[in-house]
Write a structure and sequence with these properties.
By secondary structure, this protein is α/β, with parallel strands linked by helices. It has 19 helices and 20 strands. The longest helix has 15 residues.
Length: 525
């Protein structure tokens, strides 16, 4: 037992759980937390907005396999982070957002305290897996352990942890709590083995829940001779130059036809969500085996023939122990050509843009992508990636402004790997201030902004509906100059010519480089 303040107990408990980096912004109410970050050896990365802190913690978590931590202050600061936490929940990312809370004896009807919010815990419970509140100094280590157990057992999801203002400042004897060991049992696989051994044309559909099972996914695909298609969050789990890899884009017509032709589908770590299947569900009928750590997810969006509820790596290991060797049942070359043709047709405006990126990026590059046409019509289906968590995209919740801070978090967590942010001119404005964060950290980060003079997707949707097209086209700022004003290098390009060369230079620069790629005004791209 050691005498500590609540703030010290909180930071000590985070360190006990392996936290080395936090993202956030200091404020009047969280200073007792901030006091102990450097004293306990925790690196702090100061963002310019709490939403940016949440997205950066998300990018850090996706690419390191660790919990990402954001520390913010009360009320408006925490609510600023709520959108990022909602995105982490949607994409099953373990992000811990820590904030002070109102004092234990705060009046029930309020009294006008600075940052007073009626019930910030309720607000966070609406977007996170849980909102936990420690009501004494002694309780803090156990509450931190509970938060980590929620985030790292079963389906990973974000948690909010608050400590009341007065508890942060109080002193009491504290005993730290070691991380809780969690395990997921492996279900019986007999029925699945029998079904797959009888199949002649299997296919794998792989989502973000298989990030930790890349070795097993590859082995299963090779054992079954099965092509592999992925969601956005599953992109790269099987290297996209593997003979069985079709890459991302489960919505494309070729993938729908492939699944229809198949006699067995193994869906691994995917919700089979409408956000991935843009034009409707896949024709799974009575032939899908679902591997999911979440029992609710295993029966959502498609009823499985067999549901294998457990950790993807463990379940696939059990299958591999029993399955016979199969030869290819599909014409893999023909299906790859069809899928690639569909991708280039759908994203025709982005073919050259993606080719330039592909020419510049090393094999181990990480792409922090925004919810921009350049990404979901271009990078998503056309840019090859070669490892799990190398394409960071805000699927499901579909926020704008994710790409830049997520790329910052990824670079902080992976300083020796190349990282690039790919954004649209509309979405970048949501978190453009984080250019200053990247510059302050001295990150060699290319920030590619595809400028089509507005919200291109919404502009197209208005036109398709026959609506008046308005509020979607605007004159963009000079992003290169804006980047320079925030401490970055800045490069302007008229079109995509020269983009590859500029990205190569930016990857080894002494600071971030904003690459403003001007596209024709009103381009569907």
């Amino acid at each position: 037992m050691t005498e500590m303040t609540g703030g010290e107990a909180l930071v000590a408990a985070l360190v006990e759980h392996g936290v080395e980096v936090v993202f956030g912004i200091p404020g009047t109410h969280n200073l007792e937390i901030y006091k102990h970050l450097s004293l306990r050896g925790v690196r702090h990365v100061g963002t310019r907005h709490e939403q940016g802190a949440g997205y950066a913690a998300d990018g850090y978590a996706r690419t390191t396999g660790k919990v990402g931590v954001a520390v913010v202050t009360t009320g408006p600061a925490l609510l600023n982070a709520a959108t990022a936490i909602g995105q982490a929940y949607s994409d099953s990312i373990p992000v811990l957002v820590v904030s002070p809370g109102l004092p234990l004896r705060h009046p029930a009807t309020g009294n006008g305290l600075l940052h007073e919010t009626k019930d910030q815990g309720a607000a966070m419970r609406a977007v996170a897996a849980a909102s936990l509140r420690a009501t004494s100094v002694a309780e803090i280590p156990a509450t931190v352990a509970q938060a980590f157990a929620i985030m790292t057992s079963g389906r990973p999801r974000p948690v909010h942890l608050e400590v009341p203002l007065d508890v942060l400042e109080e002193t009491a004897p504290v005993a730290l709590v070691a991380p809780l060991a969690t395990a997921v049992p492996v279900p019986p696989v007999d029925e699945a083995v029998s079904f797959l051994d009888a199949a002649t044309r299997p296919v794998l559909v792989v989502g973000g829940g298989a990030r930790g099972a890349a070795v097993q996914v590859r082995a299963l695909a090779e054992r079954l001779g099965a092509p592999v298609v992925t969601t956005s969050n599953g992109k790269g789990i099987l290297p996209e130059d593997h003979a069985l890899a079709l890459g991302a884009g489960v919505h494309l017509p070729a993938v729908v036809d492939l699944v229809a032709e198949s006699d067995a589908v193994v869906a691994i770590g995917t919700e089979l969500a409408p956000a991935d299947h843009w034009y409707g569900p896949l024709p799974l009928h009575d032939k899908v085996i679902r591997v999911d750590v979440d029992p609710i997810g295993a029966v959502t969006n498609a009823s499985p023939r067999v549901a294998l509820v457990g950790d993807a790596a463990g379940v696939l290991d059990a299958l591999l122990d029993r399955l016979a060797q199969h030869g290819p049942g599909h014409d893999l070359v023909a299906w790859r050509e069809r899928k690639q043709k569909d991708a280039r047709t759908e994203g025709a405006a982005w073919v050259r843009f993606v080719e330039e990126l592909a020419a510049a990026l090393p094999r181990d590059a990480i792409v922090g992508a925004d919810n921009a046409m350049a990404c979901y019509l271009g990078v998503h289906t056309q840019l090859p990636t070669y490892g799990p968590s190398t394409y960071l995209f805000p699927s499901g919740y579909g926020t704008l402004g994710f790409g830049l801070p997520a790329a910052i978090g990824a670079k902080i967590g992976n300083p020796d790997r190349p990282v690039v942010a790919v954004l649209g001119d509309g979405g970048v404005m949501f978190t453009v201030a984080e250019l200053a964060t990247a510059a302050e950290q001295g990150l060699a980060l290319p920030v590619v902004i595809a400028d089509n003079s507005g919200y291109g997707e919404i502009r197209n949707e208005m036109a398709d509906r026959g609506d008046p097209v308005h509020a979607v086209t605007f004159g963009a700022p000079d992003f290169a100059l804006l980047g320079q004003s925030l401490g970055c290098h800045g490069v302007s390009l008229d079109g995509t010519e020269g983009l590859a060369a500029a990205v190569r230079v930016a990857l080894v620069a002494d600071r971030p480089t904003v690459l403003h790629v001007r596209l024709p005004e009103g381009a569907t791209a």
